[in-house]
Known about the structure:
Low-confidence stretches: 275-281
Structural class: mainly beta
Strand order of the largest sheet: 8-9-10-16-15
Shape: elongated
Largest sheet: 5 strands, antiparallel
Amino acid sequence: xxxxxxKFAAIPTTAEVExxxxxxxxxxxxxxxxxxxxxxxxxxxxxxxLLATLFLPVLQVSGDSMNPTLQDRDIIVLVKTDHMKTGxxxxxxxxxxxxxxxxxxxxxxxxxxDEDGAVTVNGEVLDEPLTAEINGHTVSVKALLxxxxxxxxLYDVDHAQGLEPWDLVxxxxxxxxxxxxxxxxxxxxxxxxxxxxxxxxxxxVGSFETRNATSESGILSCFVDIPLHSNPAKMxxxxxxxxxxxxxxxxLKVELPDAAQPITIAADTSIAMKGGPWFHYDLTDEERKxxxxxxxxxxxxxxxxxxxxxxGSDYESEPRNLSRYNVQGRVKLYRADGSExxxxxxxxxxxxQYSPTxxxxxxxDILDPEAxxxxxxxxxxxxxx
Length: 385
């Protein structure tokens, strides 16, 4: 007869039974919590998808047509609404694509586009921000000012750390940079083809101490003077090249402002040109001794959009460098309310020309001749008639 070895398990203690019950209860609770969490996440995801589909679509921008407001690959949220106004951004479907554009007209508005590309809404020219993208920078035009033969463009450049104003070259026609053997050593050693009225490098706005410094946000404020030829068209296309990348190119379509008319103020006075405040502040005593005595007999002050000229005659002196003359310190312009109109470079000397009959100081500050009510020369007041 075969023997069977029977092993008897030890009867668990009360503590072991209690521990096993707690383990099984924990597993049950964990499973319930896990199922509840998954169900909650599914519900939240479903609600999010429903909201995103019906009310708040989340999109990624593709393309640069809305620069600088929207950049390529930006993530945006759209709000569905029937209440829109001019200037809002909106999305709409066209040929199975969702396009993002800015509203320029509402139902009932009349929008026209002329052959020069100017857009009008109800007979008024659309005032759009003038911006261009070039080599990773956004050029934003702040103001246009012109006299008869020159257009001055005041503009900002973003992400401008290390950028110099004259790195951006402007012209009135599409031009092409051609590198030379020296270009590898100096980016300004190039040839160019197909330019318009002349290539124009920019200048930085600001005092001499800060004019090449970018702001905390990386903005560099600049201006450029562009010669205008006899083309009577009001709409012009300006082309921009970047010396840091010869292949980079951008263009801006602008409407020329009307040329501000200069004014001439009669002034019968004389100024001694030897020493004193007439000389620029950086003239040393030794340099002053080298200048002969002289008198400038002033007959008029001419105020132009881009310059202030002292008209008269120079006696008992020789031609000299106008940069030594503190014109802004002695010839001051005032509005009717008594506030001063600065000119030059934030009220400091910018650049100028000298002749025996004219001291002319160029100004990057915007000058509105019609805003001038009177002129003071060494405290003597001359009214605008």
